[in-house]
Amino acid sequence: MTGSTRPAPGRRSFRPVAGLLAAIAVSLTGTRISAISIPWFVLVTSGSAAQTGVVAFFEMAPYVLVKAFAGPLVDRAGPRVVSWTTDLVSAGAAAAVPLLHTLGQLSYPVLLGLVCLIGAARGPGDSAKQIMVPEVADRGRIPLERATGMEGIIERLASTVGPAAGGALVAAAGPLTGLTVNAACFALGSLIIAVFLPRGTGRPVPPSPSPPPSPSTATSPGAVGADRAGQPGQAGYWRRFGEGFAFLRRDPLLLTVITVIGLTNFLDAAFMSVLLPVWAHDSGHGPAAIGQVNAAQGVLAIGGSFLAATFAHRLPRRLVFFVAFLFAGAPRFLVLATDLPLWAVLGVFAIGGFGAGFVNPILGAISFERVPRPLLGRVKALGDSLAWTGIPLGGLAAGAAVTSLGLAPVLVVCGAAYFLTTNLAALRPEWKEMDRTRGKGAAPVPLQHETSAAPPDRDAAPPERTSPHPP
Pick from 80, 61, 37: which is nearest to 167 by CA? Predict the structure, then answer.
């Protein structure tokens, strides 16, 4: 069963798209602010790059682990419920950091526990929002690539406003003010999802006795979605989890994407959580510079995402994808290893941001096309978590490496690794499928699901690329 990514005929409504994008915008803005606030708070209070890396590990390890196993639960509960409840948990944990610090009760172990809770809640919450992208695209009668492009614009806008606001807040009022704003953003995102999305959006996916096979291979024996007795919709948690794993294992393109994004996410995590804050600290530019370089990258990334939303469905995906990575990856590391003035650093980040704006829209469209809707939560939660496996280790490894070797050598090695990863991967034959299967993915949800008691649920996002802050 296949279908087109073109919108179904009917009355177009932008309310579902606008509501979901608004929730994604405020949540991502808060996350980007905390990405500056937490590392800077640890760095200035402890003076240790290693401890900064440990904090990053304690946030991202639970993020990846919980996200990996949350897919079947999101499928069953529905992404809407998962999104607003986990955002409330994140808001409470983020608010507890400045509160406990003010009361003199914030020890280092307590801080590690709170960031661990934030990461554990963010994993399924982020996936739940991304899962609803194809559903709101169906409801809004817009092409899937345009919807993922609009999500990319919002992501890049949040990645511009968040770091700029975070850097300014940290410089003017301290890192704990940034965490307070982060908590408020999570609370607002929860409210938007719970109250303002159209009724029926983000319900659990109705069980399917036989979802379509992988685009590249036939389904293995045994109907997906049936229990051992052959009755549809009665599969337990581990069987549902295994169905997602089995589908992912049969799709060479998705596996290759996960591998490449996993390696680049490891490097991006090292960059954002340790290397960039240490550069800002050691160079004397201060936390405001972190916001400035991210803002420079984000402004041009918005332009790239806008072009992707407008023209991506007409462009050769494979060529655009790897050219974008060429500009978005290695140059950021290498420029910080030099003594170039800040304006030159900002220029390199801006050019890289423009290329980065094309990455996630392409990845999002590929994921949503190739994975059947009833399996989307399981497959994408598992795929994303695998692609993010290196993120907890990125900050930990970077902290230890900078402590032992110094900042500049680590930046050069990471930049070279990024270049080799993204360029050697382009030689793999699986990437040809990026263009070959355009528009041949999973069928849109039948229209009756939009008003029934159980409209489809989705969980996914191509690896937000998104390391804590992917290009």
Answer: 37
Q: Give the up-direction half-sphere exposure of residue 354: CA atoms within 13 A in the CB hemisphere.
A: 8
pTM of the model: 0.60
Provide the b/e sequence for 226-258 (b: ≥16 CB within 10 Å).
beeeeeeeebeeebbbebbbbbbebbbbbebbb
Residue 89: the pLDDT is 92
Number of Cβ atoms within 10 Å of the Cβ of 310: 12
| 123-133 b/e (C-beta count within 10 Å ≥ 16 → b) | bbbbbbbbbbb
Residues 6+ apart with CB under 8 A from 109: none
Q: Which amino acid is at 285?
A: H
442: left (phi over 0), alpha (psi -120 to 50) or beta: beta
DSSP state of 236: -
Neighbour-count burial of 218, counting CB atoms closer than 10 A to its CB (0-12 exposed, 13-18 middle, 19+ buried):
exposed
Residue 131: predicted pLDDT: 80
CB 441 within 8 A of CB 213: no
- CB-based contacts of 281: which residues, under 8 Å, 6+ apart? 43
Query: Of 16, 6, 97, 99, which is closest to residue 59 (Cα–Cα)?
Result: 97
Cβ-defined contacts of 302-305 (< 8 Å, 24+): 302/153, 302/156, 302/157, 302/160, 302/357, 303/354, 303/357, 304/156, 304/353, 304/354, 304/355, 304/356, 304/357, 304/358, 305/149, 305/152, 305/153, 305/155, 305/156, 305/357, 305/358, 305/360, 305/361
Q: What tokens appear for 112 in the block? A: 């590690």
Mean pLDDT for each consecutive 10-residue tract of the chain (471 residues)? 41 74 85 81 78 81 81 80 89 90 86 90 84 79 73 74 74 80 89 82 62 43 37 60 80 83 88 87 80 79 74 70 83 88 88 80 74 73 78 83 89 91 76 61 35 31 40 41
Quote the pLDDT of residue 228: 38
Residues 466, 272: contact at Cβ < 8 Å?
A: no
Instruction: Provide the pLDDT for residue 117.
Output: 92
Name the region of 251 (left: φ>0; alpha: ψ -120 to 50; beta: rest). Answer: beta
133, 368 in Cβ contact below 8 A?
yes
Residue 188: per-residue pLDDT: 92
Residue 232 pairs in a beta bridge with 226
Work out the angle at residue 101's Cα, subtended by the Cα atoms of residues 95 and 103, and round it to the nearest 5 degrees: 105
- Can you state the angle between helices 15-46 and 133-140, rounded to 10 degrees? 150
pLDDT at residue 412, as a whole number: 92
* DSSP-derived secondary structure letter, 13: -
